[in-house]
Amino acid sequence: MTFLRNKHLEFIKNLENSTEKESFATEHLKTSAIYWAITTLDILDCLDLLDQSEVIKFILACQADNGGFGGNIDHDPHLLYTLSAIQILATYDKLDLIEPEKIINYVKNLQTEDGSFKGDEWGEIDIRFSYCSISILSILKSLDSINVKSAIQYIRRCQNFDGGFASVPDGESHGALCFCAVGSLVILNGLDYIDCDKLGWWLSERQLPIGGLNGRPEKLQDVCYSWWVLSCLRMIERDSWINKEQLISFILSSQDTEYGGIADRQGDIPDIFHTLFGVAALSMLGHNKNEFEEVDPRYCMTTRVTKRLDL
């Protein structure tokens, strides 16, 4: 199967005309949904497909008084959506429209004594929030505003005997959480603290006979892990440990040939989340290089953006 570029662009364009039911289901994470769409377009070198001024207007309207961003207008701020907002503005080269200090203070005040980060004022701890904080502050050139040493120590505590990483210490290893851990450590120059061979073994074991990757043992293959797992393997220089051609075939088989977009696996309904991570993985896998911009495995943004930001 070939990559259905025009179908996917049409799919993204039609997201603006989603039904009321679809809009309701994604209302709480619209900021992230826009990041998924914008980044997909940037990888496909079609960033002008959506109205930049309208996107930026919406994103700025999602910022709360404390500096954080919510998933929609008048929603509570959270690190997940704050990162998505910063990534969107960075992609559009519009970081000058925000007050960095407000966001930096918001993020650093969510770090706890043990080095972990709360996602918001309500206190949930998760290694995802460590990654969000580190990524945000890296983009804003303010990593010195947090306790980097304790942040690294907390991430190391989340690694299990099998080499994988969990959301919290003693939790279950998970492919997406490995991305959060490895991405954070690479940004902080802390990768030497972990056994990359052991982690690489666990990650490469996520490939199933069908070619796709799963997030945990005994689970089904899912296109999104084509990004979470592959990007980790790339960052630790172990991506040769999986069969790339089989993974490409699996991603391409998960495309919707009628409406465009990519689903979690063949036969399911496509969505913008899996579309981004499928497209990003195809870029990283080197599939039809002339069709894709290069993607930075640390940030899931194009390298032309991260190079412009000098990351």
TrEMBL record:
Cofactor: Zn(2+)
Keyword Metal-binding applies: yes
Pfam families xref list: Prenyltrans (PF00432)
Residues covered by the Prenyltransferase alpha-alpha toroid domain: 3-301
An example molecular function term from Gene Ontology annotations: Rab geranylgeranyltransferase activity
Catalytic activity: geranylgeranyl diphosphate + L-cysteinyl-[protein] = S-geranylgeranyl-L-cysteinyl-[protein] + diphosphate
EC numbers, comma separated: 2.5.1.60
Cofactor info, note text: Binds 1 zinc ion per subunit.
Keywords: Metal-binding, Prenyltransferase, Repeat, Transferase, Zinc
One annotated Gene Ontology cellular component of this protein: Rab-protein geranylgeranyltransferase complex
GO BP terms in the entry: protein localization to membrane
Subunit annotation: Heterodimer of an alpha and a beta subunit.
Family that this chain belongs to: Belongs to the protein prenyltransferase subunit beta family.
PANTHER family: GERANYLGERANYL TRANSFERASE TYPE BETA SUBUNIT, GERANYLGERANYL TRANSFERASE TYPE-2 SUBUNIT BETA
Protein name listed in UniProt: Geranylgeranyl transferase type-2 subunit beta
The species this protein was found in: Clydaea vesicula
Gene that encodes it: RGTB1
